[in-house]
Design a protein that fits this description.
By secondary structure, the protein is mainly alpha-helical. It is 47% helix and 0% strand.
């Protein structure tokens, strides 16, 4: 499986935080921080928008690194992605992600 597929099945290569990091794009960091701050009603600043991928070594956004319940569960269970977990189909935490992004579920099933 592509290492840029996150534990939840989202494609990190399509994530604006990842893109801003690998391209060192300050304008994209600023745009993403503003959008994510509005969507999450949280103080997200451009300097928070740095990530090299959920399953990769290196920098991650604060959410991806320590607040994401899906990532924390997958690390605890020692699975490569949620697609390797026998509880995937009934997982409520993952369900929140895949209900809004059917492509993530497809990535996990591949």
């Amino acid at each position: 499986m592509n290492n840029k597929i996150a534990y939840c099945g989202l494609d990190c290569e399509k994530c604006d935080a990842y893109l801003a990091t690998i391209h060192n794009d300050q304008a994209l960091r600023e745009k993403t921080a503003k959008l994510w701050a509005e969507l999450n009603n949280a103080p997200i600043l451009p300097e928070h928008i740095n990530c090299q991928g959920c399953r990769e070594e290196g920098i991650k956004t604060v959410f991806c690194d320590s607040l994401c319940g899906v990532r924390q569960c997958a690390l605890k269970k020692g699975v490569m992605t949620c697609g390797d977990c026998p509880s995937m189909e009934k997982c409520q935490t993952l369900g929140m992600v895949i209900s809004n992004n059917p492509e993530a579920l497809q990535n996990l099933k591949e």
